[in-house]
Specification:
The structure holds 3 protein chains of 3 kinds. By secondary structure, chain A is an alpha+beta fold. Chain A has 3 helices and 6 strands; from the N terminus they run ααββββββα. Chain B has 10 helices and no strands.
Chain lengths: ~150, ~220, ~230
Amino acid sequence: MKPRHKRIAAIALGVAALGIATALVLTAFQKNLVFFFTPSQVAANEAPQGRTFRIGGMVVVGSLKRSGVDVSFAVTDTAKTIPVVYRGALPDLFREGKGVVAQGSLGDDGVFRAREVLAKHDENYMPPDAAHALEQAKKAQRTVQTR
Amino acid sequence: MLDVARCIVYRDLLLALRRLSDVGTALLFFVVVASLFPLGVGAEPDLLRAIGPGVIWVAALLSSLLSLGRLFSADHGDGTLEQMLLGAAPLPVVAAAKGLAHWLVAGLPLVLIAPLLALQYDLAAGLYGVLALSLLLGTPVLSLLGAIGAALTLGLRGGGVLLALLVLPLYVPVLILGAGSVDMAAAGLAPDGQLLVLGALAVLAAVFAPWAIAAALRISLE
Amino acid sequence: MSTAIRWFWFASPQTFLPLAGAIARWCALGAALLAAAGLYVGFFVAPTDAQQGEVYRIIFIHVPAAWMSMFLYLVMALWAAVGLAFNTRLSHMMARAIAPTGALFTFIALWTGSLWGKPTWGTYWVWDARLTSELILLFLYLGFMALQASIEDPRRSDRAGALLAIVGAVNVPIIYYSVQWWNTLHQGASVSLTRAPSMAAAMLTGMLLMALAFWLYSIAVTLVRVRCIILERQ
């Protein structure tokens, strides 16, 4: 191959690699990168049954109820809402209307029994992954509505 | 050009086979390091299951670093490397070939041995595949990035430790994505996202790293 | 033709020597003045924060230092690239001179971040995404300096460091995003350390003044260092 052809081949290979890599990364961002299940996914039975997993979303305003040491609230991604019960002290940053991640398991009655509650605090009022999850839920809602 | 590449890969594999102890040592190191952690943190199954993927990945990183030392040293010692520099084949192709040979000898075995180590950490059955796949995608990146470091530190005293200092920060994304993918799978989520990004890194490394390795070799040998 | 000669006129280390000295003196003066102004604003003018009290004031050093640490790495990589592309000794010398200052600011960012963490989050170290990325950046700086220090031949030392700096610079965004993602994975270390209180104008002014002061300081110190390197290599 003439040197000039080799050069062109090398550049073409480089561009192709960048293209493939970009395509892979873009596809990756459409997949679930967050480390929790959204309420929509839990409602659709996508979360593992009988095993510990994490649920993330926004605490529904007005849903927080305390009775002694037991706490109950609801987590939503604006499409579906899952009730959560928890026994223990909520973290300082826990607020209604803010993002939350809870770890525990789903009971047969559809109520999530949390063993640990984490509140992710950010400049924006919602953690970026929860916001992403919310977007996904909205997208799913739209496709359902157009049917 | 492809003939040259094939020759180099074949030659390196043959040399590695003749010095099987070199190859074996790095792999044994992988196994030993992964086996040390339970001795250090205790054998509680929940803890081991939680740290397993991370530990296996770190052990793979360290083993990779160990084996990089001899990537260029033998050829540098007997003058073959200078010949390659002056030869007709483009240096990036030579670099890619050496990288491939190194991965076949030092990276691929890690992929195959890792499931055995996963047994020690009582990882769930479904995770073995993800672990192996993450290592399959990640170890080539480790080999290629490490080769850049090996080429830069060619012939320097204290080269091994210096190589580790130079290359470990660059390894961080691969470690995070690799161990993270297995953690995602352990949480019941699909590890697709992480594996796709690992794939992207592998593609980028495969195409661009040989060019950097060649530049580094030229800098070190002139 | 005459413009071409003037472009490279100062690329000769010898001609650059006196110019570097002059610029360094002015920048040092500017840095001192701006730092005084910045610290005044930071400690006396900016209001007390509702949530964190007086402790937050450390951001007037922490944030500008972090900005400089990242900015200097980019500048260092740029000089390295210029040096490799045009084969100019002075460019490599500039890259070599910037590294210690960059490392210093990275260390300051980490240290002040740690000091900020103790009263606010109760612990000296949090695996916050930004702090962790700063730590890796420190390793990148130290690796660069170690590599250059361990090579005797100046030309090989310059060029090896340059390649390492460029490879590092290319990897920095990848490292940053992977560490950010890793941080969301383990929600335990959940609060972002660099979440400054919602910015009153005075706070922003203070930070900008300090950032400018650090920038001028960096220029001054780098040029002094470059002068030393030039003289060493004569």
